[in-house]
Structures are given as C-alpha cells and as structure tokens.
Design a protein that fits this description.
By secondary structure, the protein is mostly helical. The chain is 68% helix and 0% strand.
Length: 84
C-alpha cells in the first residue's frame, strides 16, 4: 500500500515538473516524464492511483497528513515560538 501511495505522489510530482522537462532534440529515447505517464496510464498504474485515492479518503491517513503538514509549517515559520 505504501508503494502505491509513493508511486502516486511521484507521478504527481513528475507531472507538475513536466513543464521544465529538457530533452535533447536528437534523442529518440523516451524521457522520465514520458515513462511516468506511460506507467500511470497502464493497468497497474491505474490500480495504484485508485488505491492511493482510496487510501487518501481514510480518516486516519488524513490525520497523519495534517500532522505532517502542520509540523512542516512550524519548521518554515520564522515567527513561530519554540515549544508551542
């Protein structure tokens, strides 16, 4: 289950970075983004995406994510008072 969520998040990250993709003009080899899109469109990729979506609907998972996000915000906030 963790692998499918990690795969799903990796696909999202790769697709968000697709605009900065720089390929050689003469290269016939598919790029990383193309490979990820191909994998995401495959039957295995669709199953992983669906399982990731279902996992994200789980209240326990949502609480974990909220906890991680709040910890991350506290680390980035320069006005945050330590110990709170």
């Amino acid at each position: 289950m963790k692998k499918s969520i990690l795969f799903f998040l990796t696909c999202l990250f790769a697709l968000s970075c697709a605009s900065s993709d720089s390929k050689d003009a003469g290269s016939n080899e598919p790029g990383l983004v193309d490979k990820l899109i191909e994998k995401a469109n495959s039957e295995e990729g669709q199953k992983a995406i669906q399982m990731g979506k279902e996992k994200l609907q789980d209240p326990a998972t949502q609480e974990k994510i909220k906890g991680m996000m709040s910890k991350d915000k506290k680390k980035k906030d320069p006005t945050a008072i330590p110990g709170q």
